[in-house]
Prior knowledge:
By secondary structure, the chain is α/β, with parallel strands linked by helices. The protein has helices spanning 4-9, 12-20, 57-66, 80-89, 115-118, 120-125, 151-171, 192-199, 241-252, 266-276, 290-302, 325-346, 362-366, 372-393, 410-413, 417-425, 435-446, and strands at 46-50, 72-74, 94-95, 102-108, 132-142, 177-182, 210-212, 232-236, 256-261, 279-282, 305-310, 350-359, 398-404, 457-460. It folds into three domains: 1-28, no CATH class; 40-212, Rossmann fold; 232-460, NAD(P)-binding Rossmann-like Domain (Rossmann fold, 3-Layer(aba) Sandwich), CATH 3.40.50.720. Bound molecules: nicotinamide-adenine-dinucleotide. Nicotinamide-adenine-dinucleotide (NAD) binds at residues 236-237, 239-243, 261-262, 265, 284-286, 311-314, 334, 359, 361, 404, 406-407, 409-412.
Amino acid sequence: MADxxxxxxxxxxxxxxxxxxxxxxxPTLKRDLGPWTDRPLEGVEVTVLLGPGAALAEPVARCLAExxxxxxxxxxxIPDAFxxxxxxxxxxxxxxxxxxxxxxxxxxxxxxxTVDELRALHTLLHERVGLLERSGRVVLLSRPPGxxxxxxxxxxxxxxxxxMRSLAKELGRKGGTANQVVVPHGAEDRLPAPLRWxxxxxxxxxxxxxxxxxxxxxxxxxxxxxxxDGKVALVTGAARGIGAATARALAREGAQVVxxxxxxxxxxAARVAQEVGGLPLMVDLGQPDAPATVAAxxxxxxxxxxxxxxxxxxxxxxxxxxxxxxxxxxxxDVNLRAVLRLHQALExxxxxxxxxxxxxxxxxxxxxxxxxNYAASKAAVAGFVAAAAPGLGRRGVALNAVAPGFIETxxxxxxxxxxxxxxxxxSNLSQGGLPADVAEAILFLxxxxxxxxxxxxxxxxxxxxxxx
Length: 468
Ligand code: NAD
């Protein structure tokens, strides 16, 4: 069901008229759904601000230069790291002397330890945020608070998250986002992939989120263009919605995709499979023999699997007092039991550097009226990810979940109209996301460069008020 206000917002005359009446229309988000490239930040203005004691000049300089960007760096002298990377990649950095327009701002807050130093967030950003382009990006870099020796330092590092979440709400009006990467000691060289992604239009509907890097999963040299060449991916529930968008995104970047959906959905599944040059597989994941059938198929056709996306899911909403046992069981069987059982069956087939992404939901994080069954299943998915990630990490496999907010699909088209309208406007960006927004997050987590992320739940919710 199309969002009429978003459509209206794309029309300059309507936007002007609404402005004259003191009304605001949702911003038009800048997205990029084309293939990944080596230098996505070529010609893109990025300002790097180094707070007192900033520790990440090296990986930030490398990330930006490698991605084709000539950044403005400040305040003060440009650190040597930028000169070295500029030489290696031919991307000279310049001094960020005054406030100037930019698409992106990277703020290295890793060295902030005192309340006085925290003021740098205000001093360096307050004149600059107003000059951010539409759909602009702010990325804050911090350390895990526990790494600071003093209590004040720990509190100050924690302050960065509150700042980032509030800034994300302010930037949303112009389609902008603010996010944070928390970089522990030892994980510095893993920063480039998440930073590049957060600065890009591919993270259009991710806002107000902290990404926590780790070294749990063995690192892997990122491949920027066609990162999934030679990989085999299974996407469940891929006949439509988020699953179909994910199949398209993974195939676009080189993966051979198995498009799994239930018997009865052959026509849709076959269409998606044909579109992505993949294979349809019709299996009802609620059936006891489903995991064995899927494992046998992957073993026979491909001798293993590299990427598994547990996307199939259902809602059967009723308040608890009115919910039949059948509705409870059906929801838990598909959204949770099937994920656990399929994971068990596929674990031996997962190849090194494997990636698993599960679909949670902000309803599972925050709760929702009429969704005790659904929320229980989606919270359990987050629990599964936290529990199983460390063990898989030792094998070089990363396991994460994405938690979509309100995404425009068949599932949300079934929501009563008034609730649907409220749900859309609850995000920082005043609109629902598209299946492609979730697909781009799943794709990112499936790439070799994303090895620093495992055991996490990444919300793709536009910074929704719900689910904090
Ligand atoms: P959708 O209903 O459009 O698609 C879900 C797909 O899963 C369908 O093609 C369906 O046939 C398939 N499926 C369901 N039961 C199955 C079974 N037993 N065996 C095999 N396939 C089965 O839903 P969507 O909106 O694209 O949601 C995809 C995932 O994202 C779900 O897990 C959902 O809970 C989650 N999610 C969606 C939203 C949203 O706003 N749309 C928000 C949060 C989470």
